[in-house]
């Protein structure tokens, strides 16, 4: 019980367990409103800036070809704020609105996840193997006003978009542009 927590020399497993136990027993105040992006990720940024914790990547992504993307907590915070601004200001999403996100596990998937937490937007994940019929069902059942996908699924979305009366915005993660779609990378 007194071993270092994830290799952190000043935080022991027993400390983490005792914090959990004190919350469970109602001895610690639980915040009324909790936002993982600001209450956890931004706090870790502050801790690293104050040099109370060694810098570690918040996201370290490697694809099958060995290409890497490595973001610090500060970079993830900055980028997620930009994406949250795109979602709220460009796409017009408000707290409680829904977005369907159908992407492979690329860095943008994680970035949009954090941005949705920041903005209070409900993320509805989907897998890349969805058919047009599957996408139609998810859009209609969820009432999502926005969808985000990549170039491989954009044609399937286009084929059913006219049947989705709530859908107002289509975002794409792509190097190129597509008619009727906003490019997330360009907007950021």
TrEMBL record:
A GO cellular component annotation in the UniProt record: mitochondrial matrix
One record GO biological process: acyl-CoA metabolic process
The EC number(s) this enzyme carries: 6.2.1.2
Transmembrane annotation, as ranges: none
Domain AMP-dependent synthetase/ligase: 48-177
A Pfam family the protein falls into: AMP-binding
Entry's Gene Ontology molecular function annotations: ATP binding; fatty-acyl-CoA synthase activity; medium-chain fatty acid-CoA ligase activity
Catalytic reaction list: a medium-chain fatty acid + ATP + CoA = a medium-chain fatty acyl-CoA + AMP + diphosphate
SUPFAM superfamilies to which the protein is assigned, alphabetical: Acetyl-CoA synthetase-like
Entry-linked PANTHER family: ACYL-COENZYME A SYNTHETASE (PTHR43605), ACYL-COENZYME A SYNTHETASE ACSM4, MITOCHONDRIAL (PTHR43605:SF12)
Similarity annotation: Belongs to the ATP-dependent AMP-binding enzyme family.
Protein name: medium-chain acyl-CoA ligase
């Amino acid at each position: 019980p007194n071993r270092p927590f994830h290799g952190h020399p000043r935080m022991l497993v027993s400390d983490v367990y005792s914090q959990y136990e004190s919350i469970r027993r109602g001895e610690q105040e639980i915040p009324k409103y909790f936002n993982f992006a600001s209450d956890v990720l931004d706090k870790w940024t502050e801790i690293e800036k104050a040099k109370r914790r060694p810098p570690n990547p918040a996201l370290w992504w490697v694809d099958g070809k060995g290409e890497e993307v490595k973001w610090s907590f500060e970079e993830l915070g900055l980028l997620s704020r930009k994406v949250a601004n795109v979602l709220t200001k460009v796409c017009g999403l408000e707290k409680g609105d829904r977005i369907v996100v159908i992407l492979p596990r690329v860095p943008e998937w994680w970035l949009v996840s954090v941005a949705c937490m920041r903005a209070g937007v409900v993320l509805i994940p989907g897998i890349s193997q969805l058919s047009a019929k599957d996408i139609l069902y998810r859009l209609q059942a969820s009432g999502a006003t926005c969808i985000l996908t990549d170039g491989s699924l954009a044609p399937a979305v286009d084929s059913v978009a006219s049947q989705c009366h709530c859908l107002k915005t289509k975002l794409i993660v792509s190097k190129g542009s597509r008619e009727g779609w906003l490019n997330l990378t360009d907007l950021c």
